[in-house]
Amino acid sequence: MNAMSKTNKYQDLYFSKKITVEKALSFVKTGDHIVSALAAAEPRNMLSKLHTISEDITDVRVSTCLPILEYPYFCDPSYKNQFLMEGWFYMPAVRKMHEAGTVSYIPNHLHFAGVRRNEHRHTNMFIGTASPMDEHGYLSLSLSATYEKEIAQVADLVILEVNPKMPRTFGDTIIHISEIDYVIEADYDIPLFQSPEPNEKDRIIGRQIAELIEDGSTIQLGIGGIPNAVSAELMNKKDLGIHTEMFTDGMVDLFEAGVVTGRKKTLQPGKMVATFALGTKKLYDFINNNPGVVILNGSYVNDPYVIGQNHKMVSINTTLEIDLTGQCCSESIGHRQFSGTGGQADTAIGAQLSKGGKSFIALYSTANIRVPGSNERKTISKIVPRLTPGAVVSLSRNDVDYVVTEYGVAHLKGTSIRERVEKLIAIAHPDFREQLKREANELMIW
Ligand code: COA
Description:
- By secondary structure, the chain is of the alpha/beta class.
- It has a seven-stranded parallel β-sheet with strand order 4-3-2-1-5-7-10.
- Strand 1 (33-36), helix 3 (44-49) and strand 2 form a beta-alpha-beta unit.
- The longest helix is centred in the N-terminal third of the chain and has 14 residues, at 3-16.
- The model has no long low-confidence stretch (mean pLDDT 95).
- The protein binds coenzyme A (COA).
- Coenzyme A (COA) binds next to helix 8, strand 17, helix 13 and strand 23.
């Protein structure tokens, strides 16, 4: 077959699969399970019209992760019998849904998200986004392979919104037109996610962590303000590599500055490995058609035993609250789900399986929190004698390694409770240290 007729063959197949959003939604049946691609890869046209079929269906489950936009049925309890959202990771829109009782959290380690979901509930429809088809009939799932490819492989129907604005990425994102049931053409802008500018506390924390990162290390940066700020402090390092869940703008800066080369990586040398990307247009332009970046299945990238194959693997994540024994609550405020475990434990454990690896939990010593039921705020210590009732332990005290605040570094791996109490109080805010000592004694945390 010559090149021209091959292209025509795939184009014919593509056009035969082209449908409207309305047609796609007409395939949804009562009791179906729909899985949506995550974050910036979410299929916005289908999700924004899902509520229009509410009179035709009941009890449809929608599993998703990190949804960026707030869709019409999200917080409206009148759709409760029609749609139940189940989420792997909460974002502001999902926190609102939780208040409305229209969502339930799926506890998970990210590398098991797709695998375990598949074991639990069959997927009737996978909906996602893709960059346009190439001459060989391949499209790219673009910004995420966290669970998308693995769910698409077992779903009854795979429907993708094909958008020329989605970057074309390589790895497990690559999908052939023959593996897709229907395509919907789309042209919306990709959601942008701008990290806040690092402040003085971020810079202090970043510098302390940077001092402990050796040249030739492979890094993972977690979600939240501090991990992003840390990347700015790594500019004078040499030959760093990337093996991360989330690919970020800071990593683009490090590559462009010649800091990230991947030359010393012991797993996939030269490649920047991630499971999804979320950031600004600069990031999306960088990963577009970039053979140096591979977006691979979350079940592979975030498997601690895979992570551990990178020598000098460094994971950098953050937490909401840590108790004096080292238990980290990184996903809930008391019993209220705030985000998710995501890959925090995966990457922290993986980094410690690595030869020369280190895992960091970085946090401000205090938080200025809203007082429930009022407009006032108060300052609390994020290092506490015991976690707030209901708090979810995202990273167990058995797996915590370095903890860093703007007041210093506590290396907890291998230490006793007594040593942890001392080390953590030493990096707590000075205003809270006496109180922490007192409470530790009263509670006999030693
Ligand atoms: N008690 C009560 N509220 C607290 C708190 C505490 N101990 N610590 C922080 N908060 C509040 C803050 O005041 C802030 O509230 P506001 O929005 O009203 O100002 C909110 O919680 C968020 O805190 P912030 O420190 O700004 O969060 P962040 O955006 O930097 O994200 C995590 C931090 C921990 C939520 C985020 O990193 C996360 O979800 N981690 C788990 C997943 C993970 O690490 N994955 C790694 C692989 S990507």
